[in-house]
Amino acid sequence: MQTPASPTLPPNVLEITLAIALAAALAGTLALVASRLARRVLGSLARETLGEPLARGTLRVVRAMTFVVGFAVFAFPALDLAGVDVRVGLQSEDLGRWAAETGVRIAAILVLAFIVVRLLAGVIVRAEREMSIGTGLDALERRKRAQTLASVVRRALSALIWTTAVLIVLRELDVDITPVLTGAGIVGLAIGFGAQTLVRDVISGFFLIIEDQVRVGDVALVNDIGGLVEQINLRTIVLRDLEGAVHVIPNGEIKTLSNRTKDYSYYVIDVGVDYGEDTDRVIAAVKGVGAELGADPVHGPNILEPIEIMGVDDFKDSSVSMKFRIKTVPLKQWEVGRELRRRIKRAFDAEGIRIPFPQVEVHVKREDARDSS
Length: 373
What we know:
Blueprint: H1 13-50, H2 52-81, H3 92-131, H4 137-172, H5 178-194, H6 196-210, E1 219-222, E2 225-232, E3 236-240, E4 246-250, E5 257-259, E6 265-273, H7 279-294, E7 308-315, E8 320-328, H8 333-351
Antiparallel strand pairs: 1-2, 1-5, 2-3, 3-4, 6-8, 7-8
């Protein structure tokens, strides 16, 4: 019984291994030098603008891309020195020359585009952070505005830079980009005529952002759909409702938009009391609750003005309806309102003020029994 022959290694495996190791060592050295050079060039600007994590990520990308290009440049000459015949359809000298010239330029373009995108993102993040300095109401409004503009500007600049980089790389590959640009113009014109809905969405989104109608972080009611605004794009607005459902609404389809957290908010509360209660005593009790809530260290900073007594609002079947409202910072009206309701209930119980509930009174009329005689 014959045993299968074990696979034999090529006779020049040692030379190939040494050549690859030499190319990897040279590429690693080049990558290390490029990384240190990039660290010196970026310096404190990268750390201040990008922040330490993004700066480290940028340097890692520069090191990795430099290693790949360096390995491609050094691999073919190293294999030639080792006497290895690389059969790839082209001469190894031509491949090495292409990698050393065109390949290096392409890698430099991509690295430069990556660094510029990271730097611009860092500048935008830093500007957003500086605009959000402070803890007051103005700082909260500036933060919402900055987040909205930053997300749109960052995406637009990234798309522009990478598109430009790809076109330059095509030129380096001897691809005539004139037909590409011409075709893009024709396609864009066709899209402009055919995709009128898309154009309408983009134009509506542009004015939605410029006019500061709603910002990321606001709670808005769009076409009778309410939720927290998570994203504002040129084409769509994204809301997340109380149940966590995400609603994506094209900007061109927005018919009505109600921003419930623009600059400040009100919490309106209707309280029903028994017809037999003194409304002045009810108002005094509610004012006391409002003053107590305004002095609270947790909820007090969220209240902008004392509780407003709007008076008797309606006469209902079993109660007198009284309306109150309290002015709060944006997004805090529900938290303050729930606490206000809890304290009003507790104060009414202490004062003996009765809050009626729907009830039905049944009157039974009995007729005198007739004589059996």
